[in-house]
Structure formats: C-alpha cells, structure tokens
Write a structure and sequence with these properties.
NAD; seven-stranded parallel sheet; ADP-dependent NAD(P)H-hydrate dehydratase activity; binds potassium ion; 502 residues; binds ligand NAX; binds adenosine-5'-diphosphate; Rossmann fold; elongated; alpha/beta; UDP-N-acetylmuramoyl-L-alanine:D-glutamate ligase; 2 domains; 19 strands
Length: 502
Amino acid sequence: MLNATLPHYLFTASQSREIDRRTIEETGMDGFTLMEIAGLSAAKHLLGSDINLSHGVYLCGKGNNGGDAMVVARYLLQNEIAATLVFLSGTDNLSPDAQRNLELLQQFDDHHRIEVYESWDTLEQTEHWDFIIDGMLGTGLDSNLRGDYLEAVHWANEQDLPVASMDIPTGLHADTGQLMGACIEADYTFAFGGRKQGLYLEEGPFQTGSVLYCELPFPNSYKARCDTFLLDESWVSLEQARPGRHKYASGVLYLIAGSEGLTGAAMLAARSAWAEGLGAVILVCPRGLLPVYEIGLPSIIKKAVGNKSDDFFKPDHLPEVLDILEEKEGAVLLGPGIGRQDDTVAFINRFLPRNPRNTVIDADGLWALAQWEQWEKPRGSQWILTPHPGELSRFSDKPIKSDAHRLHFVRNFSSRRQLTILSKGMPGIIGTSSGECYLTNYDTRYFSRAGSGDVLAGKVGASLARGRAPDASCAEGLLRGKKKLDHYLTNADDLPEPRDFI
Ligand SMILES: NC(=O)C1=CN([C@@H]2O[C@H](COP(=O)(O)OP(=O)(O)OC[C@H]3O[C@@H](n4cnc5c(N)ncnc54)[C@H](O)[C@@H]3O)[C@@H](O)[C@H]2O)[C@@H](O)CC1
Ligand SMILES: Nc1ncnc2c1ncn2[C@@H]1O[C@H](COP(=O)(O)OP(=O)(O)O)[C@@H](O)[C@H]1O
Ligand SMILES: [K+]
C-alpha cells in the first residue's frame, strides 16, 4: 500500500482553510504567527537561492496572501534588500494580520528602503528591480481576475525578472489548476502548510515553476482527511529485483496480448516486464503469430493457442488459455495490441469472469470491457485498469472535460468498482479502491508516443506479478519510467523513444 509523507499531501482551498481555522481556534496558535512562519520560510529559501536580491517589487492584495509577502519583505529588509510594495486594492481594507505586517515593516525601515504605492496606476516604473514577489491572491481567489489585478499579472509576466509566488501563482485556481482570466508565470511557488492540488492539475504544472514546501505548525491529525497525494520517488520505494530460488519464485507474468499488425505492442510490454527481473514472462498468443514472437522475443516463454491460421484471440481459445494460467502462480496483463475483432471482444469478456488472478487490463482490453455493460470483477482478484483519456471516457456517461473532473471520476469509479485505476495523461492519476488518488509530478508528455503505454503496462504488470499491492504497482511502473526519463534528459539531446523507457 502507498503511504505518502505529509509534505506530499495535496489540499483543496477549503481543506486548507479548515486546517487554518482549526489550528487557530483549537490550538491557540494565531494567524499572525502562522503568517510569520510562512513568510520567514519563504525568505530563507529566497536568500539561499541564486536570485540576485537587491531590490524587489512586491505585488500585494488585501488578504493574507499580501501579508505573507510583507513578512518576506521584512526579512529581506533585514538583509538590506529594498522593497517597492504595490497594493492592488489599496491599504484601507487589509486583513488584520496583513495590516499589522504593514505597520511592522514600516517600523523596521530605518534606512528608508521601503516604498509603498496605494494603487497599481500610481506605481512609477523608474526604479531598477531585480525580482518580483507575487502576494496578490492565494486560496482566497474566488472569481476571474479583472482590472488592476489583470494588468499587474500581465506586467509581471512581461518583465524579464524572476517571480516568486506566495502559496499559489495569482490567477491559478487552487482546486482545479484552471487559469482565472490570467495567471502569474512563477519561477518559484512557496506552498504554505500544504500543497494545493491545483498546482498539479491542468495548467498548474506550467505556471508554478519549482514548488517549495514550507512547513507550518498545523497538527498532523488535522490533515488526516486528505485523500489526494503527490507521487514522488522520495517516498515511493522502487523494489529491486531479487533472485528467487528458482525462476517461478521471482514472479510470473502472463501476458495475453497481440494480434495481426499489433504484435509490436505485445513485444514492448513483454520486454518491459522482463527487464524488471521477473522469473518468467509467459506470452500467451494465437498460434499464427508464434513465428513473429520466436524471432522477436527470444527470452520470453511463448504459449500458443488455437490453429496456425489464427492471428487474433477467439472464444474457442478460452479453455486452452485457462489451462495455461493454471500452471503457475502469477499475475496477468491483458490487452496490449490484442485488437478489437468481435471474436476477441467475446473472448475477453468470457475470459475475465473466469480469471481469478490479479490482472492489469490495458489498451483494447479496456475497449472490450467497456462494451460489456454488466461487467463485474471476480471476487478476490485485484484489477488495475490503465486507461488513456479516450479509454477512460468510455466508462463515463459525461465527457471528461478537465483534470479536476478526471480526478473526481477516477476517485469515484475506482472506489465504487473496488479496483485500481491508472489514468494516463498529464498528470497521471492513480485511483485506489479506498478512494485515494495520487498525482504524478513530472512532465508526462515525454511519454505520449505510441508504445509508451505498452512499456508502462509491462512495468505495472511486473510489479503486480512480484506481489506488490495494485496502487504500489502503478506507482512503481510510473516512477520507473520517470527515472529513465531523468537519466535520458541529462544524458541525451533527442526525444526519448518508448523503447528507451524499457
Ligand atoms: N492563517 C492563515 O489563514 C494563513 C494564510 N496564509 C496565506 O493566506 C492566503 C489566504 O488568505 P485570504 O483568505 O486572506 O485570501 P487571499 O489573500 O488569497 O485573498 C482574499 C481577498 O482577495 C479578494 N479576491 C478574491 N478574488 C479576487 C479577484 N479575482 N480579484 C481581486 N480580488 C479578489 C477577496 O475578496 C479577499 O478580500 C493563503 O493563500 C496563504 O498565502 C498564510 O499566511 C499562512 C497562514
Ligand atoms: N512512466 C510514465 N509516467 C507517466 N505517464 C506515463 C508513463 N509511461 C506512459 N505514460 C502515459 O501513457 C501514455 C501512453 O499510453 P497510450 O496512450 O495508451 O499509448 P500506447 O498504448 O500507444 O503506448 C502517455 O501519454 C502517458 O500519459
Ligand atoms: K499568490
């Protein structure tokens, strides 16, 4: 089972507000102190960064997000770094903690390094600034940006200066990652007390720059209701293959895959699983395709079913396939390149209810499953479904139009059907039978070339065959690809190909 560490918990705006509220009301820790810790933590990160810090421009809203920015300004002032503060909504209606921080900042300003502008249009752009602090809006954003906020965001994005956002880039929706009219393109985002899930959905990954987590003193028990997490190799252990006493003790994966014209998918999945050090990968194939695999897959055990003229699976193959699966303990990967022939759909839909093994259903395996209205998973077996967005939408009544909707659908579908979903896309989302979701935190667009899905399915199947839990198998499959991607990006200039991820 996956068990994320607290800095990898992802919150909605209302969950964040609830944690703030409980901390303030129940522990006696006040909002001013929380703001101080948030701002100090961001200031320390900035002081340790390679940004040239001599004079910053601070874009401040009237809420607590602006207050965070003023705490940063005060700590940088202590390091003799000047600040120009622009209050987009003036200084008459600041939140109480922001107001107090403005007064404190002025008290600290012995050498007149602070300038305050009460509105956007009074700002005189004559100074030389070397960084921008975005403290306009955080979790309090509740409508599209307009007027001066819109102008300030466009202005900040046009400057050739590093931008650091307090909590969330202004204009990014904290829950959905959608752009609210316009959005700050940050180089750094300081996530206070918990990362907001919108940082990782939809446009979020393209707006935040590096996200730096800043701890706040919230009791851990207040975070217990969190059900969305960020996948990260810092807390997901990738199990090393260990030699077994004999080949079948290191895990067996039965691969039911391939059809005429689509043997490449079966081969990629087989090689990918084999590369994970399994004892055996057993490819079950229609007999007519055996000569192709004999040449292409020398290390893989092949078990052919049917006649020499068969180049796709048919219902007649069912008894033979079930007999093969009886031979050894193991998991099943069904689908890569299996095709959509009517006979194959019929084969799959008769096979699945009789197959007691833990099973990954991928590609056209999912297509067949979606044709079968009353499908049910056999009791006791665990299923992982690995749909890309088109495949996922076949299980939904309504089109899935946004990542927030996809997250919601994946969570409900996997818990209602008691299975695990690996929803491919940017981000990749794992949904578990207990209603938890895990989001990827890297550029999955590198995997959007035909064949990467087969490689991923092979890795997920290999982990399942080694006995890992379904959610951990999905995480392991994804992160093995990420590890290869990181290696590739630092060592090569061209675009990686699917086989580079094997
Ligand atoms: N105790 C706390 O609550 C803490 C809050 N923190 C900071 O406080 C932020 C949340 O503070 P607030 O709840 O005050 O909210 P914000 O500071 O995000 O903004 C709220 C204000 O913006 C206005 N607003 C909303 N949408 C707007 C739009 N489209 N255009 C213009 N104005 C708009 C609202 O009317 C409200 O006055 C967090 O994101 C974080 O940065 C941190 O200081 C840590 C502790
Ligand atoms: N290691 C990985 N990490 C994240 N996403 C991945 C990884 N490998 C594959 N993917 C996802 O799988 C998708 C490719 O799968 P798919 O569309 O089914 O293609 P195919 O079956 O043609 O290979 C990619 O666009 C990406 O979203
Ligand atoms: K902000």
